Amino acid sequence: MPAKRSLSKQKTSLTMAITPPAEPTTKGERTRAVLLDAAKRLFVSQGFHGTSMRAIADEAGLALGGIYNHFGSKEDIFVAILAERHPFLIVLPAIQSAQGATVEVLVRDAAGRMIAELSQNQEFLNLLLIELVEFEAKHIPMMFDTLFPPLMEFAQRFQAVHGPLREIPLPIILRSFIGLFFSYFITDLLIGNLLPAEMKSGAFDYFIDIYLHGILAGE
Amino acid sequence: MPAKRSLSKQKTSLTMAITPPAEPTTKGERTRAVLLDAAKRLFVSQGFHGTSMRAIADEAGLALGGIYNHFGSKEDIFVAILAERHPFLIVLPAIQSAQGATVEVLVRDAAGRMIAELSQNQEFLNLLLIELVEFEAKHIPMMFDTLFPPLMEFAQRFQAVHGPLREIPLPIILRSFIGLFFSYFITDLLIGNLLPAEMKSGAFDYFIDIYLHGILAGE
DNA sequence: CCTACCGATCGGTAGG
DNA sequence: CCTACCGATCGGTAGG
Questions:
Q1: CA A205 to chain centroid
Q2: Cβ pair A214:B213 closer than 8 A
Q3: Is residue B128 one of the residues assigned to a domain?
Q4: Could you tell me the residue range of the domain that residue A51 belongs to?
Q5: Domain-embedded: residue A52
Q6: What is the mean pLDDT of residues B50-66?
Q7: In terms of domains, do A149 and A46 share one?
Q8: Domain count, chain A
């Protein structure tokens, strides 16, 4: 009778770190990191249900069974990606390092930093869309608790710096600031390469401009 | 040896009608409509790859093989939904019927009509997100040709009515107007039920307000 | 439109 | 006793 092996089905921590994961040191940590990166690439380009465990194993360069030494299931892999590779890990440092003595300068600086980071990481949007479409946002609450405080802290700086805001609740100002990026990137995906450059070049600057001043000329 | 059945793999028209599909009359048309509605419900809640042909058959109340009398593949069903049930069929009439003698009134009227329609049809966003995530937006070009002209026509009305716009290219104004809805609905999905009502109630009115006037108080 | 299947592939686990 | 896998196969399901 064979002895039962103890499979270390490591549960991904459900509290999220704001700092990126530490550099993997042991062989196991390195393999785990390779798996997460491989799965992330495939999920981003094919979706969650469109990606097989075999495809992840191939992309990571190991056998299918080897995955289960690191993750208990395919969903566990996705959750780990959200927790350890999610786009907000990139966005938060960018937003927190923003500088500006007025609201306008602060917003432009924060938005510029975020766009610079996010444009290099196009997968940020897809991971979130997969979460919304294929998981009905069920993992969002676990992310929310750690993301909300620093975001609100940023929003507070809107009020602290010089420059009057119109009478809009601060949470709405923050929400619409974040929404700006969805607005920009999703319409960018929709128009794709179909449009003349005039509708794309410098578009984000105009988006920020509208966020700050609106489309109407002052009377 | 069974005789080979002639499968009527009806191709969905690749040009899109702006008018909704005609009321189904024949038995076959009714079954087809039932299949599209069933598949749409499942796609919206589980994604494309997360929905099986058997599930669609069950939801529609027929056998698996029966689906293929109406559609050649699962993807064909999705394409037919995009072409005949897609959200823009709802949005375009709303936008075209908008009234207003000034830009501000026109924008508020159009946005109000769109939100009213879209809030009743929460699936509108998910269908588009599925297209973006699971199909990498490959069906968008077929939709674009028919959607772009009426949208630009609407944008032209921005200029025709009284009320000066800031110096922003018209395509950008249109794009950011459309983006407003992604901004609103996606942030709504993200915050879910986690937030106090204060951040949600009347939020869209504020979004429109920011679109028109920006967050900064005039100096 | 159904029953009965196919080639293949699915997510996950067996013993070693 | 642990880790990090392997080749092979489990029970079921995929699109057609």
A1: 21
A2: yes
A3: yes
A4: 27-83
A5: yes
A6: 89
A7: no
A8: 2
Q: Are residues A110 and A128 in the same domain?
A: yes
Quickly state the pLDDT bin for B198 (edges 50, 70, 90). Answer: low
The mean pLDDT of A22-26, rounded to a whole number, is 66
Q: Does A105 lie in the same domain as A172? A: yes
Co-location of B46 and B140 in the same domain: no
Contacts of A50 in chain B (CB under 8 A): 48-49, 134
CB contact under 8 A, A203 and B175: yes
Round and report the angstrom distance from CA (B21) to C1' (C3).
33
- Name the B residues in 71-130 with CB < 8 Å from any A CB: 103-104, 107, 126, 128-130
Q: Are residues B142 and B183 in the same domain?
A: yes
**Residue range B122-133: mean pLDDT, rounded:** 87
Does A197 contact chain B (CB < 8 Å)? no
Which residue, of A65, A83, A101, is where some domain finishes?
A: A83
How high is the pLDDT of residue A22?
Answer: 55
pLDDT band at B171 (very low <50, low <70, confident <90, very high): confident
Question: Do B195 and B182 belong to one domain?
Answer: yes
pTM (two decimals): 0.85
Specify whether A108 is located in the same domain as A73.
Answer: no
Q: Is residue A30's beta carbon less than 7 angstroms from any atom in nucleic acid strand C?
A: no
Q: Does residue A18 lie in a domain region?
A: no
Cβ atoms of B129 and B140 within 8 Å: the answer is no
The domain that holds A54 is classified in CATH as: 1.10.10.60
Query: Which residue in B210, B211, B212 has the most chain A C-beta atoms within 10 A of its own C-beta, making it the best mutation to test that interface?
Result: B210
Q: Is residue B160 part of a domain?
A: yes
3-state secondary structure A37-81: HHHHHHHHHHCCCCCCHHHHHHHHCCCHHHHCCCCCCHHHHHHHH
A163-209 tens-digit pLDDT: 688 999 888 999 999 999 999 999 998 887 676 666 577 899 999 99
